[in-house]
Design goal:
five-stranded mixed beta sheet, disordered N terminus, alpha+beta, 18 helices, disordered C terminus, 32 strands
Length: 772
C-alpha cells in the first residue's frame, strides 16, 4: 500500500483549503503510483519526506543497535537508487551521523583495542559511512532484457503501416493491458526482450501489414523487506529496477554485528541468492547481484567468525571469515603484505578454551604458514622489518652529502673519508656555481662580494657514536679529524665497527677559538692596495694596514669609517626598541588628550597631530643603523700616519673606508640655507651657521651640535665648563646641525636630544636629514 497525504487529511477547513488539499492529494497520489517518489517541502505539514529514515528506526539504531527494530519505513523511488519516506506522518529524522555510527561497536572491536592499544575498523564498514541522506529518483536507466513485466508498469505502444496507433497503457492487477480494436492482451511475466513480439502477435490476430514498437514508460513500485542485522531494517517500497545491492545500501548496510558475507535473498520459502559483499569490495564484482521482486526478503544474518589483522599489511582491519578460509585468504583480503613487512614471520593470539586464557603463537609466512587455519577471535600481527642495517657505517654532519658505506674488516676513519672533498659542504659548491651570476641591476657588473658563505670544518674535533653490544649503552669516541685523514695518525685514525655513526662538526656547530676561525675584512679608499683580506691570527687594524702597503698621501685618517656587522645589528635592535617605546608613549598621550578634548576643533587638532606622529614614526622605522664604530681619531690634520688609528682587533665582516680629505663642511637643520660650504681652518661653528643664513625662528639655538667626521658628536655638554660650542673648531667633513625647537611641539620633546640619538645609533647626517 502506498501512503499519501490524502489518507491523513482530517479536521475542519475552509472550502478553499479543502480544494487545495484535494489537488495536493491527487498530485502526490499520482506521483506515488507512477513510482517517482513523493516529496513534501519541510514545514508544509505532515506527510512523507523523501530521503530521510524513520524516527523509530534511527532511534533504534542509536539506542539498541543489536536488538530487533520497530515499525519499518517506506521507500519510494525508481531506479537503482532509493528514496526513503515515513509511513507514520511524523517529521523525518536526520540520517546516521558519524557520532551515531561510531557508537555501533562490537565486543570484539573493544577487545582488539584493549589488546593492541589502537582501534581497528571492521572491514567494509566505511563503505556505508557518510552515505547520501537522499537518493534522487532515476528515470532514465535502461531496462534490462530479463525484466519481467508486471502489474503497474506502463507500456508505450506505437504502430505504423496499415495500423496507426500511439498509445500508453498500464498493466492492470490481472496482468492485462487493453488495446482499442484489439482487446485485452496478457503481458504479466513476459520478459522485456520478448515484449515487442508478444504484443505484435496479439495485435496480428486482427490486423496485417503493420510494424509495432513497444517500450516501457513509468515502472511499477514493489515492496520488499530488509530484516536481520541491518542498520535500518524495515519494509521498503522501491522501484522494480532495484537490486539486492541497492536495497542493502538503502538500509544502511549491515550493522557491526551483521554479516557482510552471507546476505540472503529469500523469495517465498527459498533462499534464491546469497551475496558476499567482499566480492564487491575486493574485486568490484557485482555479477551475483539480482533484481528484486515484490515480496522479496533480504536477510542479513549475524556476523560469522572474526579475525583481526594488524601490523605490516596494506589494510589493517577486522575481517569476517567463512569456514575453510585460511591465513592466505586473510592476507588477500588485506591487500597483501606492506612494503615494510618482514615477510617471513607473524604472531597470532588465540583463545585457549582449556586454559581459559589467551595464548601466543609464532609461525613463518611460507607456503605452509599461509595455509594455516584460523579460529574465531584470533588476532594476527605481521611483524615489520627492523630499520637496522647490519654492515653499515654512517657519515653525517658537516659533509657534502651524508651517506652509509658498507663496513669491511679493518676499516678505519681514513677508509670512510678517503678524500677531504667529501667534507666540502653543498653551500660551498652553490657559492662556486653562483659566482658568475650577474647583478640584476647591471648586465655587465659581476658580483664581487667576498665573504665567508659557508661553515668551515672543525678539523680539531669529530666523534664516533657506537652502541656497546654487551651493555647496550651508547659510547661517544672523539678524535682529531685532521690527524686521522690527513696525517694518518694511528692514534686518531680509529678502527670502525658495524653500526658506527661518524659525525663531522663545523666551526659553527661548536664554537672554536677566534684564532681558528676564518675572518675577512674589506678595506677601501685611500690605501695602497684596497681589497678583501683574510685576517691573520691576532691581526689588528694597524697591522693589517701595514700589511696592505699603508695609506696614500691623500688619506684622511680623521674621517676613517669602520663598520661592523655585529654592531649594526645591535644598533638596529636598540633603534627599533626606541621607536616602539616612543610609539607606545605617543599613543597613550593621544588617547588621554582626545578624551579630554573640550571641543570639536580641539579634537580635530589632536587627530592631525596624531597623523603627523604616525608619519614621523614611519620615517624613523625606515632609518637603518650603519654599524659604524667611532675611532675617535685626534683632530690633527698634520698627523696622517697609521699610528693615529687605534690598535683595534678586527672581526669577520669588518669594513674600513679611508676617505680622501673633503674640502667642505655641511650645515643642516633649522637654518635658512642648508648647504655645504668650503672648509677654512679659521672658521668656527658660528661662522658656518652665519654662512647658511643663520638660525630660523623655530631653531633651538641652545642645542646646536656637530656630527664629526670621525663618528663622534660634539655639543655644549662635552665642550667644557668655560667654553661655548659656537667658537669650537670645525674639521673637514663635519656636519653642523641646528635642530628645531621641539618645545614648541609637545609630542616631539622625547626626541629633543638629537645629539645623543645620532651618536648612540650611528645614524649620521644623512639619517638626520631624512627625518627632518
Amino acid at each position: 500500500m502506498l501512503h499519501t497525504p490524502c489518507s491523513r487529511m482530517a479536521g475542519p477547513a475552509s472550502a478553499l483549503k479543502k480544494a487545495i488539499a484535494v489537488i495536493a492529494c491527487l498530485w502526490f497520489g499520482a506521483a506515488q503510483a507512477e513510482g517517482i517518489g513523493a516529496v513534501v517541502a519541510p514545514g508544509a505539514g505532515p506527510g512523507p519526506t523523501a530521503g530521510a529514515p524513520t524516527s523509530s528506526v534511527a532511534d533504534s539504531a542509536r539506542s539498541a543497535p543489536m536488538s530487533a527494530t520497530p515499525a519499518p519505513p517506506t521507500i519510494v523511488g525508481s531506479g537503482d537508487q532509493v528514496d526513503m519516506a515515513k509511513q507514520d506522518g511524523t517529521q523525518p529524522q536526520q540520517p546516521f551521523t558519524t557520532e551515531a555510527e561510531s557508537a555501533l561497536r562490537t565486543a570484539f572491536q573493544d577487545f582488539v583495542k584493549a589488546t593492541l592499544g589502537r582501534d581497528l575498523p571492521i572491514y567494509g564498514e566505511s563503505l556505508f559511512r557518510g552515505r547520501p541522506s537522499t537518493f534522487a529518483p532515476v528515470s532514465d536507466l535502461p531496462v534490462p532484457a530479463d525484466y519481467l513485466v508486471g502489474t503497474g508498469d506502463e507500456l508505450v505502444i506505437q504502430a505504423w503501416g496499415q495500423l496507426q496507433m500511439q498509445y500508453r497503457v498500464t498493466v492492470d492487477r490481472s496482468g492485462n493491458i487493453y488495446i482499442p480494436q484489439v482487446g485485452q492482451v496478457n503481458v504479466a511475466g513476459v520478459p522485456y526482450a520478448d515484449l515487442n513480439q508478444h504484443i505484435k502477435q496479439g495485435v496480428g490476430k486482427y490486423f496485417k501489414g503493420f510494424e509495432l514498437s513497444v517500450s516501457l514508460g513509468k515502472l511499477r513500485s514493489i515492496q520488499i523487506y530488509v530484516v536481520g542485522a541491518a542498520r535500518q531494517p524495515g519494509a521498503y517500497t522501491v522501484s522494480s529496477l532495484s537490486s539486492l545491492v541497492s536495497a542493502v545500501f538503502a538500509s544502511g548496510g549491515p550493522r557491526p554485528d551483521g554479516s557482510m558475507r552471507r546476505i540472503q535473498l529469500k523469495r517465498g520459502d527459498k533462499v534464491v541468492k546469497e551475496f558476499d559483499l567482499y566480492d564487491l569490495l575486493l574485486a568490484g564484482d557485482k555479477s551475483k547481484d539480482v533484481a528484486l521482486r515484490s515480496g522479496d526478503v533480504i536477510f542479513i544474518p549475524a556476523i560469522g567468525n572474526q579475525v583481526a589483522l594488524a601490523g605490516s599489511v596494506n589494510n589493517q582491519a577486522i575481517f569476517e571469515l567463512k569456514p575453510g578460509e585460511v591465513l592466505g585468504d586473510l592476507l588477500r583480503f588485506a591487500g597483501g603484505l606492506s612494503t615494510t613487512a618482514a615477510g617471513h614471520k607473524a604472531m597470532v593470539e588465540r583463545n585457549d578454551l582449556k586454559q581459559k586464557s589467551r595464548m601466543v603463537d609464532q609461525f613463518m609466512l611460507d607456503e605452509a604458514g599461509r595455509k594455516r587455519p584460523l579460529a574465531d577471535g584470533d588476532i594476527v600481527n605481521v611483524l615489520p622489518l627492523l630499520p637496522k642495517i647490519g654492515n653499515a657505517i654512517t657519515l653525517r654532519g658537516a659533509v657534502a652529502a651524508p651517506f652509509r658505506a658498507p663496513w669491511t674488516e679493518g676499516m678505519r676513519i681514513s677508509d670512510l673519508i678517503p678524500d677531504p672533498e667529501i667534507l666540502i659542504s653543498v653551500d660551498y659548491w652553490q657559492h662556486v656555481n653562483g659566482a658568475i651570476l650577474v647583478d640584476t641591476n647591471s648586465t655587465t657588473k659581476v658580483l664581487t662580494e667576498i665573504k665567508r658563505r659557508f661553515d668551515e670544518i672543525n678539523w680539531r674535533y669529530a666523534a664516533i657514536e657506537r652502541l656497546d653490544p654487551n651493555g647496550l649503552k651508547n659510547q661517544l669516541i672523539p678524535f682529531d679529524l685532521e690527524k686521522a685523514i690527513i696525517a694518518k695518525d694511528a692514534t686518531q685514525n680509529l678502527l670502525l665497527r658495524p653500526g658506527d655513526i661518524v659525525t663531522i662538526f663545523s666551526k659553527a656547530d661548536i664554537a672554536v677559538p677566534l684564532a681558528d676561525r676564518s675572518k675577512y675584512v674589506r678595506i677601501e679608499g685611500e690605501v695602497a692596495r684596497p681589497g678583501v683580506y683574510q685576517l691573520q691570527p691576532e691581526e689588528t687594524l694597524r697591522s693589517l694596514l701595514q700589511r696592505v702597503g699603508g695609506l696614500t698621501s691623500k688619506a684622511y685618517i680623521y674621517g676613517a669609517q669602520l663598520t661592523r656587522e655585529s654592531l649594526q645589528l645591535e644598533q638596529q635592535e636598540r633603534l627599533t626598541e626606541l621607536t616602539d617605546r616612543l610609539e607606545q608613549e605617543m599613543n597613550q598621550a593621544q588617547r588621554e588628550k582626545q578624551l579630554e578634548a573640550s571641543s570639536a576643533e580641539t579634537l580635530a587638532a589632536y587627530k592631525a597631530e596624531q597623523l603627523n606622529q604616525q608619519r614621523y614614526l614611519q620615517k624613523l622605522r625606515s632609518v637603518k643603523a650603519n654599524g659604524r664604530l667611532a675611532l675617535e681619531v685626534d683632530s690633527d690634520l698634520n698627523n696622517n700616519r697609521i699610528s693615529a688609528l687605534p690598535d683595534l682587533p678586527l672581526q669577520d665582516g669588518d669594513k674600513l673606508l679611508v676617505p680622501a680629505r673633503p674640502e667642505h663642511v655641511l650645515v643642516q637643520g633649522s637654518v635658512y640655507n642648508q648647504s655645504a660650504f668650503l672648509y677654512r681652518e679659521d672658521r668656527s661653528i658660528t661662522d658656518y651657521i652665519k654662512l647658511a643664513g643663520g638660525p630660523t625662528r623655530n631653531a633651538d639655538r641652545a642645542d646646536v651640535f656637530v656630527i664629526r667626521a670621525n663618528g663622534s658628536v660634539y655639543n655644549d655638554r662635552n665642550s667644557g665648563w668655560f667654553s661655548s660650542i659656537g667658537g669650537a673648531r670645525v674639521m673637514p667633513g663635519d656636519t653642523i646641525v641646528v635642530p628645531e625647537d621641539f618645545d614648541k611641539s609637545s609630542w616631539m620633546r622625547e626626541l629633543k636630544d638629537w645629539s645623543q640619538i645620532i651618536y648612540q645609533f650611528a645614524l649620521g647626517a644623512a639619517a638626520y636629514k631624512s627625518l627632518n
